[in-house]
Amino acid sequence: xxxxxxxxxxxxxxxxxxxxxxxxxxxxxxxxxxxxxxxxxxxxxxxxxxxxxxxxxxxxxxxxxxxxxxxxxxxxxxxxxxxxxxxxxxxxxxxxxxxxxxxxxxxxxxxxxxxxxxxxxxxxxxxxxxxxxxxxxxxxxxxxxxxxxxxxxxxxxxxxxxxxxxxxxxxxxxxxxxxxxxxxxxxxxxxxxxxxxxxxxxxxxxxxxxxxxxxxxxxxxxxxxxxxxxxxxxxxxxxxxxxxxxxxxxxxxxxxxxxxxxxxxxxxxxxxxxxxxxxxxxxxxxxxxxxxxxxxxxxxxxxxxxxxxxxxxxxxxxxxxxxxxxxxxxxxxxxxxxxxxxxxxxxxxxxxxxxxxxxxxxxxxxxxxxxxxxxxxxxxxxxxxxxxxxxxxxxxxxxxxxxxxxxxxxxxxxxxxxxxxxxxxxxxxxxxxxxxxxxxxxxxxxxxxxxxxxxxxxxxxxxxxxxxxxxxxxxxxxxxxxxxxxxxxxxxxxxxxxxxxxxxxxxxxxxxxxxxxxxxxxxxxxxxxxxxxxxxxxxxxxxxxxxxxxxxxxxxxxxxxxxxxxxxxxxxxxxxxxxxxxxxxxxxxxxxxxxxxxxxxxxxxxxxxxxxxxxxxxxxxxxxxxxxxxxxxxxxxxxxxxxxxxxxxxxxxxxxxxxxxxxxxxxxxxxxxxxxxxxxxxxxxxxxxxxxxxxxxxxxxxxxxxxxxxxxxxxxxxxxxxxxxxx
Length: 727
Ligand SMILES: Nc1nc2c(c(=O)[nH]1)N[C@H]1C(S)=C(S)[C@@H](COP(=O)(O)OP(=O)(O)OC[C@H]3O[C@@H](n4cnc5c(=O)[nH]c(N)nc54)[C@H](O)[C@@H]3O)O[C@H]1N2
Ligand SMILES: Nc1nc2c(c(=O)[nH]1)N[C@H]1C(S)=C(S)[C@@H](COP(=O)(O)OP(=O)(O)OC[C@H]3O[C@@H](n4cnc5c(=O)[nH]c(N)nc54)[C@H](O)[C@@H]3O)O[C@H]1N2
Ligand code: SF4
Ligand SMILES: [Mo]
Hints:
- The protein is about 30% helix and about 15% strand.
- With about 725 residues, the protein is α/β, with parallel strands linked by helices.
- Strands 5-4-16-15-14-6-7 form a 7-stranded mixed sheet, sandwiched between helices.
- Helix 2 (about 80-100) crosses helix 19, helix 4 packs across helix 12 (about 300-315) and helix 7 (about 220-235) runs antiparallel to helix 10.
- It is globular, with a radius of gyration of 25 Å.
- The relative contact order is 0.16.
C-alpha cells in the first residue's frame, strides 16, 4: 500500500535568498525538496537546495549539546543535557557580566540561517545591556543598507519586472548562485532590458552583457564619479527631482567635476569612450536599477561607492518609480522585527560603548542616531534595522577587544549559524580573540573550525524543521511563510528557544513572554486578526499594494527630508560629507600581483556544505584562478598547489588557469576548510591551510574609513611554488 506524500511550502535557507520550495514529506520525514509549481517560481531552485535534506541527514550532524573536556581546541567533548549546558552557560555569562559589565558579551551571527528567531537575539542583548553584536552582514548588504539610509532614508529594492536597464557592479548571479536574481535578470533581458556589467573578469554576466567594462578591482567608486561626470555635464539627469528633492547638489557637482573621464580612465583602466557610453545608457534608458552588490560592500572606498550608487539612482529620477528602485518601508500589518529587537531598551551609556563606533561610526548606534526622528516621521518606527545592518559593532574592533582587552575586555562570545573564525578579515586576530575568552557558545549544524574552539556546541534545527515568518530582512515589506516540514533530529533546537531559555536563566524572562517562536509570530501578526497557524495556512506570501513616489507625501527619512547628496550625518561625524576617491597605499615590491576574495562557489554557501559528498565531488579543492600568462611567468602549472601570500598571511590553493581572468589578478575562493580533516588546534580541519580570512588584512590601509569594513577587492599579493614556500 502506498502512502500519499504530503507537500509543504518551505523557504530554503541553504543560502540567503530564501527560494520558496516544496518539501515532500513521507511518514514525518522530508524525502525530497523540489521547485514550487507556480510558474513565477518554478525555476528558483539550485543544487544546494536540492541536496539540503542530504546535508541535514548527514551522520556528522550535531544532534546533542556538547561541552568541552580538555583545553580549548583540544577536540575532546562530552555529551551534556540541554538543561546542564544552559545552566552552566548562564552561570558563566553571569560571572563575566558581574566582573566586566554586560558589554563584555559579544554575539556574532549573520542571521541568514538563523533569522527565524525574529529579533530575539538583539532583544536579549538590549535587555542585558550589550551593544556588541557583530555580523557577516557588516560585509554584505547590512552595511550597504545603513549607508543608503543616510542618503535617502531606506534601502531600495530593485524592480526587475519593469526595468529598462540593469547595472551589475561585479555582482554575478548564476543558475546556482542566487538563482531567483539570475532568473529575474534573464527575464528582464528577454523582455528587452539592457545589461551593463562592470567586472575585472569576463564573468558569466559579462558575457551576456550589452556593455562590459573591465574595471580595475576596487575602482568602483571612481567609475561612478566618471559616470556622474558625464551625466551632469551632458544634462542627462532629472533636473526637477534634483531641484525639489535633493540637498547639496552644487557641492556634489563640484566634487564630480574633479573626475573628468581621462582621470577616471586612468584609475579604472577602462576606455573613456566606453565609460561615457555606459553612463549615457543608464541615464537615458528610463527607470533602471543598480541592484545592491556585495562587491562595493568590501572595498576601501565602500562608503563612497555605495553613496555614489545611491546618488545615481536619485539624480536620474529612478527612486520609487515602477521599473526603478523601490523604497518599501515596513509592512503596515506586521510588527517589524526591529521593534521586537527593542533597541530603545539599551541605555544611552551602553550604546556609547559600542565597539568601533568612535572611529568607524556609520553602521553603529552613534552613526545612525540622527536617523531616528526622520525614520519615525516617515516609516513609523524610530529604529529600522534593515538587513540587520544598522546598529552593529565593528567586527575588527570587537575582535581586538576580545584579544587585548582594549578599550575594555570582552570575555564571552556567542556565535549562531556563523563560522566567525573564517567569516571576517584577519583570522589570526580572531583566533587570538577566541583563545582569550572565558565563554564561547556555538549554535551549529556541524563541527566547524569555529565550533572546534568553543566551550559549548549546541545543535541547531534546520529550515525543514522549523516554521519561519520571513520579512525580507526588513527590506522588502513582503512577508513569506515557511511551514515546519519535519521534527528536528535528536535534541536539535531553534535559536529562539536558545535566547528565551538563556533570558529566563539570566533574570530577563519578562522580556520573553512568548513560549515559542510561533507565539511571537502571532504577536507580530495581531493587526491581521490571525494567529500564526491560520496566517500560514492562508498565505504563502503577504504583501501590501505597491505604492510609488511616497516621498511626495512624507519627504525622505533623512535629517533634511531630502536626498542628501552632501551628507549632514557624515559632516557632523567629522567625515567628508561628499563621496570621494581614496587611492591605494603605495605599491609594495614584495607583492606584485593583486587578488580578490570571491566568485562564490556554485556548490556551497559561504563556508558551509563541504561535507555533502555530491556537492564536494563537483568542487573537491579550493581553487585559485589565474591568467595563463601569469602562470607561465611564475612557472605554475594547472592543478599545482601554491601558496598565496598577502601582508596578512598565506593560504594554500590549487592553481587553475583561466583566460577569463585579467593578467595580474588572482581569485581566492572564500571560506575553505575540510570537514574530513583533523579537528582541533593545529589544523582546525584545514582552515589554517585554506581559509581566505587569513590573508584579508584589517589594518587602516585596508579598512574603509567611515564603516571600518575590510578591503577584499584588489589586495597586493604574491604566489609561491610549494618548494619555495617550504624553503
Ligand atoms: N574572509 C571573508 N569573510 C567574509 C566573506 C569573504 O568573502 N571573505 N564574505 C562575507 C559575506 S558576503 C557574507 S554573506 C558573510 C556570510 O557569513 P555567514 O552567513 O555567517 O556564513 P558562514 O560563516 O559560512 O556561516 C554559516 C554557518 O551556519 C551554519 N548553519 C547553516 N544553517 C544553520 C541553521 O539553520 N542553524 C544554525 N544554528 N546554523 C546553521 C553552517 O553550518 C555554517 O557553519 O561572510 C562575510 N565574510
Ligand atoms: N552558490 C552560491 N551562491 C551564492 C553564495 C555562495 O556562497 N554560493 N553566496 C551568496 C552571497 S552571501 C553573496 S554576497 C553573493 C555574492 O555573489 P556575487 O555578488 O556574484 O559576488 P562574487 O561571486 O564574489 O563576485 C562577483 C564578481 O565580482 C567580480 N569582482 C571582483 N572584484 C571586483 C571589483 O573590485 N569590482 C567589480 N565591479 N567587480 C569585482 C568578480 O570577478 C566576480 O565575477 O552570492 C550569493 N550566492
Ligand atoms: S538559490 Fe539555492 S540555496 Fe539559495 S535559497 Fe534558492 S534553492 Fe536554496
Ligand atoms: Mo554575502
